[in-house]
Amino acid sequence: MQYRTLGNSGAVVSNYALGTMTIGAEATEEQSRAILDDYFAAGGNFIDTADVYSSGVSEEIIGRWLADRAEVRDRAVVATKGRFPMGQAPNDVGTSRRHLVRALDDSLRRLGVEQIDLYQLHAWDPVTPLEETLRFLHDAVTSGKIAYYGFSNFLGWQLTKAVHVAKAHGWSAPVTLQPQYSLLVREIESEVVPASLDAGIGLLPWSPLGGGWLSGKYKRDQPPAGATRLGENPKRGMEAWEARNADPRTWDVIAEVEQTAGRHGVSPSQVALAWLADRPAVTSVILGARTTGQLADNLAAADLRLTAGETERLTEVSRPRVGVYPYGPMAQEQRSRKLEGGR
Fold first, then answer.
1. What is the domain count for the chain?
2. 246 close to 167: Cβ distance less than 8 angstroms
3. Model pLDDT for residues 269-327, shown as the tens digit of each residue
4. pLDDT one-digit tens code per residue, 103-150
5. How far apart are CA 208 and CA 201, in angstroms?
6. Is-catalytic flag, 53?
7. Would 325 be classed as within a structural domain?
8. Are the C-beta atoms of 177 and 254 separated by less than 8 Å?
9. Are 60 and 98 in contact (CB under 8 A)?
10. Which of 62, 234, 286, 304 is the most exposed place for a label (fewest CB within 10 A)?
């Protein structure tokens, strides 16, 4: 396991984080405790959860586990999120001070901690003034309820605006952003990644295996079935499979991943994770696991070193298609400049 600073903060986290959306949903409490134990035994120290994961059950299970694990409690860096509905009333959702005050206090209670290491806005809120939200987060930092804050699912302009509004008011600055990012979903490289690099924001990619596609479990001529995310919901699974299957780039990427995995004698998942962990601005890749076996396979990516040629081939075959403007070749040339001058 490698360790990196949490964005532009001084806190240190492992470069693979444990995502816990499965805890309390696809994994029982007993299974979840085993997953947490194995993750920390492997050198991980970064847990990511959210209040909406199983309607608070994920946080509760993590809280009980932390209470029983004095030997790792102080090592653990715990991140959670607020923003999505936790009830049916108008103020049970959003990033208003009214909602976040209660959401944060409820997360602290469920996790059984006095301070949350990283508190994240789960998504942009178009209703609440940004100043209201950022002032709340600053107050939460100064009061000691949270150590740092970050965002999830923000666009590039939203991230940049938040960074500069906080700076203009002298408020605490964000340190991280959670985007969807993988060899199959690289669109954030046009705006979000440059904005993050500019602000010193650390990326915490979620769905690093593209919803399971990069694990090798899905085949071009075999509709999803069995104990897979797509197989367990036949109607939605088939729709998702048909949509992804229709893009020929999907199978080009998977083929390159599998060939690389074969050369190293590892699983396709490990190749996809190793590629992502070394992308610019990435601090920690969020792993999701239903079982200790899945976790062990994913964590083995920490020991995999891709060659420069392998990284280049994976990057090229997975390059996202962009239109002529503003992200096409001509537009990119317009934003570049040769130091020696000329065209």
1. 1
2. no
3. 999 999 999 999 999 999 999 999 999 999 999 999 999 999 999 999 999 888 888 88
4. 999 999 999 999 999 999 999 999 999 999 999 999 999 999 999 999
5. 18
6. yes
7. no
8. no
9. no
10. 234
Tokens in use for 53? Answer: 């994961």
Nearest CA to 166 among 121, 125, 124, 136? 136
d(CA 143, CA 197): 29
**What CATH number is given to the structural domain containing 240?**
3.20.20.100
Rg (CA), the chain: 20
Q: Which of 16, 39, 53, 148 is catalytic?
A: 53
Domain-located, residue 187: yes
Helix or strand holding residue 146 (H, E): strand 146-152
Contact 83, 125 (CB under 8 A): yes
> Which amino acid appears at position 106 of this protein?
D
- Non-local (6+) Cβ contacts of 148 within 8 A are 6, 7, 9, 11, 117, 118, 119, 141, 172, 174, 175, 176
**In the structure encoding, which two tokens stand for residue 59, read together?**
């946080």
Assigned domain for 338 exists: no
Cα–Cα distance for residue pair 230/214, rounded to 1 Å: 13
Contact predicate 310/218, CB 8 Å? no
The residue to which tokens 């590039």 are assigned: 156
Query: Does residue 335 form part of some domain?
Result: no
| 40: its two tokens | 């920390």
What pTM does this model have? 0.92
